[in-house]
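=== Given protein ===
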Amino acid sequence: MSILTHGFDRPLGSELPARISGARKAQLKDLALGALTLLSMGSVLTALIALKTAIYVWHLNV
């Protein structure tokens, strides 16, 4: 919430629950692991494309 529309008499995080339930924590952990896996796969794919391009360019110059 924006500082401009939020009252100054209470902290910004006061509307959030104090604790996250175990089921919600497990769901967030699974989501984070899935996102990390997706990013890792993307970086491996990018590295493979760069390697293939470098080999192709190297063979052109020989």
In short: The CA atoms of residues 47 and 53 lie 10 Å apart.
